[in-house]
Write a structure and sequence with these properties.
Blueprint lengths: L2 E6 L2 E6 L4 H7 L23 E5 L6 E4 L10 E3 L3 H17 L4 H9 L19 H9 L5 E4 L6 E4 L1 H7 L14 H13 L6
Parallel strand pairs: 1-5
Antiparallel strand pairs: 1-2, 3-4, 3-5, 6-7
Helix pairs in contact: 2-3
Bound molecules: iron/sulfur cluster (SF4) and FE2/S2 (inorganic) cluster.
């Protein structure tokens, strides 16, 4: 694969064609915050926390989703800027309204000055990052968990027939959840649908 060079936060970074900006930054130990990204999963672009500013061929800087955006020769990337920080703050305020007790979100919220009380939404605990659903499908090939319903009613749900056989011995998705909503949902489903079989 062809080698390319881009600039991230003023530093010259070598990457390969086909790599995302996020991957190029991670390889150069430059931090971009993420929530729905996982190195074993296909990029998803769901949370928008990894937004960065990109300038190419003299064009005006624009915001792109770094976990999806391809690294290109000679582009200039800024992982922090007033615009980037504003977007991350808004994203975090929305997510904190859903999951106000999440340690990970609270820490990020502090970093970006997010005010969790601003949106006044009812907490739903799951922030729909999809990590659990995608990990179960893509890595474990089990589909024991999925999204049910749409829009504001969207929730995760375990498939009892599969979960009762597979989840008790696996639980690899639990530590991926940024809000712990997953464990709560699992305990609930286990108690109702397959009591005592999950262990
Ligand atoms: S339960 Fe957790 S890991 Fe699964 S989609 Fe919701 S926030 Fe993400
Ligand atoms: S980490 Fe890129 S959109 Fe979530």
């Amino acid at each position: 694969m062809k080698g390319i060079t881009l600039k991230i936060d003023g530093e010259e970074v070598k990457a390969r064609e086909g790599m995302t900006v996020l991957k190029a930054a991670q390889n150069a130990h430059i931090r971009i915050p993420t929530l729905c990204y996982h190195k074993k999963l296909e990029p998803y672009g769901g949370c928008r926390l990894c937004m960065v500013e990109v300038e190419s061929r003299g064009s005006a800087p624009r915001l792109v989703v770094s976990c999806l955006y391809p690294a290109q020769n000679n582009i200039i990337v800024r992982t922090r800027s007033p615009k980037v920080d504003r977007v991350r703050k808004t994203v975090l305020e929305l997510l904190l309204a859903h999951a106000p007790n999440s340690f990970e979100l609270k820490e990020l919220g502090k970093e970006y000055g997010a005010d969790e009380s601003r949106t006044g939404q009812e907490p739903s605990f799951c922030i729909h990052c999809g990590l659990c659903v995608r990990y179960c499908a893509e890595v474990k090939k089990k589909d024991a968990i999925g999204f049910v319903d749409r829009g504001i009613h969207k929730e995760i749900g375990f498939v009892p027939e599969i979960a009762s056989k597979e989840c008790g011995k696996c639980k690899e998705c639990f530590p991926l959840c940024p809000t712990e909503a997953l464990q709560a949902a699992y305990i609930f489903v286990e108690a109702l649908a397959f009591p005592g079989q999950g262990h």
